[in-house]
């Protein structure tokens, strides 16, 4: 190969000229120091590229929240949030044109309390000038599928109260960029009702995204609530791809995007090339976006650990892109972006319902995490109901900032709502960290609850006024039949006192069950009357779970004398307690009824009838199967069957290597689970309830309970250890079948609140290409699921979040447990294979939980779903103490209600928050439990009389607040942006409760309304003698 060289003379001249030009270029570009012009603001007639610097900091995922914060365990991942905050603050202080948004208050709080006063002053200036903006502002970026709405409100309130107190700031924007699908409740409740002006996120179904890109409908106005309609709508922006920057514009230290090289003395000068790439990426995004404003999310997971590496590049891009002039680049925030979208005065597409389920690929439906880690999901739900009750008791006694109080439980519950916490998509050691925090929070709240109950019970006893010496105990392991105080053998003259607290605003009659060791006991109410009670033998499955798990949790074996559950019906006043006494029966005296045990031998074709009240379940004696459901009161007779089956999880070895894992549900085949024995059921009968015990195989058993006074069946299942020695992961489901003709339609709740209509193999927003006929029809369930036809409706309620569907007409399916052997390639890098260990021996985790089912005449089911649904969320809280003779009953208050004795809240209203805050303010939140049109009696305006809710206090002022109580409601309404929506505005007029009259003090609530108030009292001591 040859090429012609210029002559040496010509070359010398050329070199000389080049040198002059270069020198001139160097002089003109001031290579030693370039003052980048980054003062740029919006230019009306250009495409404006809003650069939004952000870091997505998971409060636990591959590492625990504290490991992420301090930068520990970096062999898993080099991530240190302290570095992020330190370096971002210093980069912002370097130039007042730079901006940054921060989201996760759990991290910010950790950082903030370590800062000097001087640094705090500087940071406050950054916040006031808008350089640093808090977005979302909750403790974490919560999951949207598996949390309960009350937990979402609480964890958001915690972050927002901090921001208000420390910075006087009210976040304007929802930033849910990573959660795996988005709920209707997020849009209207945790969005509009917080006063947010907009909401942004990344993850929606890939088919939905393709259509929206095509139709420029990624930016919408979302009306998440049928009941509240346009009064609770929010402008919502879905990112065109993900929450990272366009390809080629990521600038963490080790990122591979080419930096702008603008020093002519160095090699690889590339300013024009990079500007061209910037402009091309901007135009591509502008092509799928309405208006001349686009947002670039400049950051991703745990970025900005060395913030200058990002800001240096963004400074240069803003400078050179604007010099180029084809598009306009600027530092921005989602708030600024929202304002310009609003100012554009466009009409936006309307979105209703939600964004579930989420798929990022034809075989990758993220519907497994609806059930992943069911034990942790159950624990979170249990703690949630406990926290609600504990805050009430804390308020009744008077809060102590030095403790014990509910603060640690509040913090732990807040972290647990993170989109890699209750979702079940974190690593095993991180799940253990969340559970440990919950336990520590519980342990402190337990002390508070005990002392508060003792205080309330003691408040008329003159002898011990103000000095409740009583030892009140609780039983956090009651779910596995372990309760030392109730199991204690009662010696002569001693009896067990059971204090039963009800955190709901209406009186409840419910059966409580406690484990006891004696078979001769009787139960008295607080007036000394003997009440009906029943002893039920424990099943072998129950005993073996108890023995194994008590050993695993507390390191010692429980004593072996336990024989029975003692069941009796308790009646408890609203926001109050009742007391029951369990004593050893005398030879001749009254005693609780020992249940009749009946084991059909499978030789007859008889039908077995179960139930002492109006609900009866019928089982076939030969097959041991449920066959019929009959309620004689409301004249419902239905064929009903229940069964278990499992999906074998795809192991990722077929053409598409997508495995079933913590996030993704990708089933291979379904297998029914048949009983292994001829005699599958044992029936236990008595005056309070009947039980049907079934052992389906060596690792699935269940107890179905029919209570005399209730019209639903309660099913307690035990599943595990799921066998995997065949090398196949399994996902266990139960099916309830009826003959109802449900036309592919079923209804599932959104975070325990609004029910959304689902149609099998169908999506409202696009023509669904069905790739995964099972996984693609799964939805998250927090409260319940129901189906209906023209005659009846079948409802199932749950005790924790699970995945569920209706794959066949008349049928409901719930996924209850999963054990998988492969990672599903979405980042967690671990198989979802939970085990529990005693000493060094580990076995697969066993799950025990409940669901509840009922069949009603069509149109009658909502009353049960809503009112009993609230009771499932807030179970009666049991506390125990011992008395000698009758010293407790004679000296203590046996029943208590915080509200006026003549008053109760209507059955459609719940007190979802009653709390004395750290600053002494009292926060009251009331929720209407029904949607518009859901029930003919309860879907109506309801009212609450505050004077009767606080009968012993003088209310001096009531201030209605936004949902997170960080601004007055009126102020929030005034600032609300009035977005325009495409299409006809055909919605009926939205109804809301009116203002609270300061004299009458009556709060009105319309269907699905939640109202939050600060209440001031004239004096704080409530229970003066
Ligand atoms: Zn995340």
How would you explain this protein's 3D organization?
With 1025 residues, the chain is α+β, with helices and mostly antiparallel strands. It is 25% helix and 28% strand. The protein is built from 20 helices and 51 strands. The strands form 12 sheets. It has a 10-stranded antiparallel sheet with strand order 22-28-29-30-31-42-37-36-33-34. Strands 23, 24, 25, 26, 27, 32, 35, 38 and 39 form a 9-stranded antiparallel sheet that branches. Helix 12 runs parallel beside helix 14. The protein is globular. The N and C termini lie far apart (107 Å). 52% of the residues are buried. The chain binds zinc ion.
The largest β sheet comes out as: 10 strands, antiparallel
Ligand inventory: zinc ion
- Determine the strand fraction and express it as a percent band: 25-35%
Terminal-residue CA separation: 107 Å
Structural class category: alpha+beta
Q: Could you give the order of strands across the largest sheet?
A: 22-28-29-30-31-42-37-36-33-34
Percentage of helical residues?
A: 10-25%
**Gyration radius, in Å:** 31 Å
Number of strands: 51
Shape: globular
Mean pLDDT: 93
- Count every helix, treating DSSP H or I runs of 4 or more residues as helices: 20
Low-confidence sequence ranges: 1-6, 462-468, 1020-1025
């Amino acid at each position: 190969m040859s090429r012609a060289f210029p002559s040496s003379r010509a070359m010398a001249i050329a070199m000389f000229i080049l040198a002059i030009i270069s020198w001139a270029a160097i002089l003109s570009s001031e290579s030693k120091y370039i003052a980048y012009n980054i003062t740029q603001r919006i230019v009306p007639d250009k495409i404006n590229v809003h650069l939004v610097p952000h870091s997505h900091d998971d409060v636990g995922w591959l590492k625990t929240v504290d490991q992420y914060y301090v930068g520990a365990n970096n062999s898993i991942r080099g991530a240190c949030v302290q570095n992020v905050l330190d370096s971002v603050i210093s980069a912002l202080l370097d130039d007042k044109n730079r901006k940054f948004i921060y989201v996760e208050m759990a991290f910010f709080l950790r950082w903030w309390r370590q800062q000097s006063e001087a640094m705090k002053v500087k940071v406050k200036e950054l916040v006031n000038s808008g350089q640093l903006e808090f977005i979302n502002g909750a403790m974490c970026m919560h999951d949207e599928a598996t949390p309960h709405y009350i937990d979402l409100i609480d964890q958001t309130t915690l972050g927002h109260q901090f921001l208000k107190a420390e910075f006087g700031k009210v976040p304007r924007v929802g930033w849910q960029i990573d959660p795996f699908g988005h709920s209707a409740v997020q849009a209207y409740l945790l969005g509009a009702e917080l006063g947010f002006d907009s909401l942004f996120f990344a993850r929606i179904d890939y088919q939905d995204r393709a259509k929206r890109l095509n139709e420029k409908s990624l930016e919408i106005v979302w009306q998440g609530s049928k009941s509240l309609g346009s009064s609770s709508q929010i402008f919502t922006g879905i990112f065109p791809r993900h929450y990272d920057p366009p390809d080629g514009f990521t600038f963490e230290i080790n990122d591979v995007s080419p930096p702008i090289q603008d020093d002519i003395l160095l090699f690889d000068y590339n300013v024009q090339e990079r500007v061209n790439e910037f402009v091309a990426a901007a135009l591509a995004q502008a092509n799928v976006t309405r208006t001349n404003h686009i947002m670039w999310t400049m950051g991703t997971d745990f970025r900005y650990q060395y913030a200058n590496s990002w800001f240096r590049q963004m400074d240069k891009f803003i400078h050179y892109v604007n010099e180029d002039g084809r598009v306009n680049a600027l530092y921005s925030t989602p708030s600024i972006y929202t304002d310009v979208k609003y100012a554009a005065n466009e009409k936006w597409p309307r979105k209703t319902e939600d964004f579930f389920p989420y798929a990022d690929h034809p075989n990758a439906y993220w519907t497994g995490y609806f059930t992943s880690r069911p034990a942790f999901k159950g624990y979170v739900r249990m703690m949630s109901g406990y926290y609600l009750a504990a805050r009430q008791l804390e308020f009744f006694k008077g809060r102590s900032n030095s403790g014990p109080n509910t603060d640690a439980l509040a913090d732990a519950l807040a972290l647990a709502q993170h989109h890699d916490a209750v979702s079940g998509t974190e690593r095993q050691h991180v799940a253990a960290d969340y559970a440990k925090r919950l336990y520590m929070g519980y342990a402190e709240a337990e002390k508070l609850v005990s002392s508060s109950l003792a205080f309330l019970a003691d408040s008329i006893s003159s002898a011990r006024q103000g000095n409740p010496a009583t030892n009140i105990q609780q039983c956090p392991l009651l779910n596995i039949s372990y309760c030392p105080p109730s199991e204690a053998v009662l010696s002569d003259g001693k009896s067990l006192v059971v204090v039963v607290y009800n955190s709901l605003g209406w009186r409840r009659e419910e059966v409580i069950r406690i484990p006891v060791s004696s078979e001769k006991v009787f139960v008295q109410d607080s007036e000394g009357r003997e009440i009906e009670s029943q002893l039920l033998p424990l099943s072998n499955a129950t005993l073996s779970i108890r023995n194994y798990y008590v050993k695993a949790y507390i390191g010692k074996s429980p004593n072996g004398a336990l024989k029975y559950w003692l069941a009796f019906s308790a009646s408890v006043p609203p926001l109050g307690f009742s007391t029951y006494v369990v004593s050893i029966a005398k030879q001749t005296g009254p005693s609780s009824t020992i249940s009749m045990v009946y084991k059909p031998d499978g030789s007859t074709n008889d039908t077995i009838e179960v139930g002492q009240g109006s609900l009866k379940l019928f089982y076939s004696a030969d097959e041991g199967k449920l066959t019929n459901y009959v309620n004689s009161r409301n004249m419902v007779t239905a064929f009903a069957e229940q069964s278990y089956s499992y999906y074998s999880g795809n192991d990722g070895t077929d053409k598409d290597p997508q495995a079933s894992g913590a996030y993704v549900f990708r089933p291979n085949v379904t297998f029914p689970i048949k009983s292994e024995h001829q005699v599958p059921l044992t029936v236990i009968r008595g005056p309070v309830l009947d039980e049907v015990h079934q052992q389906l195989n060596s690792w699935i058993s269940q107890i179905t309970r029919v209570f005399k006074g209730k019209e639903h069946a309660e099913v307690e299942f035990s599943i595990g250890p799921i066998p995997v020695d065949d090398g196949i992961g399994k996902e266990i489901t139960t099916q309830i079948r009826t003959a109802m003709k449900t036309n592919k339609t079923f209804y599932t709740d959104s975070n325990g609140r609004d029910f959304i209509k689902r149609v099998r193999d169908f999506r409202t927003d696009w023509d669904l290409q069905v790739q995964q006929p099972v996984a693609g029809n799964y939805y998250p369930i927090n409260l319940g699921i129901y189906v209906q036809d023209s005659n009846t409706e079948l409802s199932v309620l749950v005790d924790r979040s699970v995945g569920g569907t209706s794959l066949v007409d008349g049928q409901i399916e719930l996924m209850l447990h999963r054990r998988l052997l492969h990672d599903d390639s979405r980042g967690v890098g671990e198989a979802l294979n939970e085990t529990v260990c005693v000493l060094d021996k580990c076995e697969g985790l066993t799950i025990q939980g409940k669901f509840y089912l009922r069949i009603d005449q069509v149109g009658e089911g909502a009353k049960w779903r809503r009112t009993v649904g609230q009771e499932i969320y807030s179970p009666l809280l049991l506390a125990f103490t011992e008395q000698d003779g009758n010293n407790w009953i004679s000296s203590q208050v046996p029943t208590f209600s915080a509200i006026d004795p003549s008053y109760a809240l209507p059955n459609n209203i719940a007190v979802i928050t009653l709390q004395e805050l750290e600053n002494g303010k009292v926060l009251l939140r009331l929720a209407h439990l029904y949607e518009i049109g859901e029930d003919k009696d309860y879907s109506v305006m309801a009212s609450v009389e505050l004077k009767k809710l606080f009968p012993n206090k003088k209310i001096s002022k009531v201030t209605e607040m936004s949902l997170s109580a960080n601004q007055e409601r009126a102020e929030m309404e005034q600032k609300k942006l009035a977005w325009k929506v495409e299409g006809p505005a055909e919605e009926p007029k939205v109804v809301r409760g009116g203002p609270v009259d300061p004299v009458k003090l009556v709060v009105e609530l319309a269907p699905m309304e939640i109202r939050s108030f600060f209440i001031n009292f004239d004096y704080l001591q409530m229970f003066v003698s």
